[in-house]
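Pipeline run #58 for the internal structure catalog. This entry was flagged by the ingest filter as a single-chain record with no existing model, so it goes straight to prediction. Upstream metadata was stripped on purpose; only the residue string is passed forward. Reviewer on rotation: M.T. Logging verbosity set to normal.
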Amino acid sequence: MLKISNLSSGYRDKEVIKNISFEVKQGDFVGIIGPNGSGKTTLFRTLTKVIPEYRGLAMYKNKEIKNWQVRALSREIAVVPQFLFMTFSFTVYNFVALGRSPYLGRLEPLSTRDKEIIEHSMYTTECSHLGDRIVTELSGGELQRVFLAQALAQEPKLLLLDEPTSHLDIGHQVEILHLLKQLNQQSGLTIIIILHDLNLASDYSERLLLLKEGSVYKNGMPSEVLTYQNIEAVYRTVVVVNENPVTKKPHILLVPKTL
């Protein structure tokens, strides 16, 4: 589905990601991890043409991403952004309905099918009861579900999520990731997710891409990537890596610095 080879990209004269290479198959659940500034969000912006120019190869369904029309790409790839701040007083229903924009002409009204997709997306993300609420009045957990519902309304084949759990309590973090895992396993939705919580990344991802200073440091299964050697080399902090007794995946314990 996605083939990245020697991809370099950034902003103006600053190169942020450098010669990144990896592949994503249909139905994969891939986690991207790495310290702040390692290029995770820049990678997403390149894949969605927010950053239109890059060097190297970025292929989606055997076609260079730079050659995709934005409207056509929006029918294939949806993004749940990192910062969920709302300043417009949309109702939840109308906000989710914006996900149908790639399929509508200018001023074209929603069809019966569009409305069915919107309602199904809200039902799937358990935010149907919020339809008449104003998005600026929602809690962080509610707003995260609404953003996810809007993304699903695009009917994407590939879903990119940039730290979707960063502002949520542990209960909501597990709810969101469980929902994403269900969508991945039951609907075959391909997911690439940026996570800062290494334990969540370990438990929910089938494969991890560890970035360091804009380059791929390690790519593989959680057990291959989340070793104490890799974590200490990339994050420059001491950790202990055990096994989660439930998931059997690596579990990271931070070692506090002595005061």
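catalog note: The longest strand covers residues 14-24.
catalog note: The chain has two domains: 1-76+158-225, 86-155.
status: ready for reviewer M.T.
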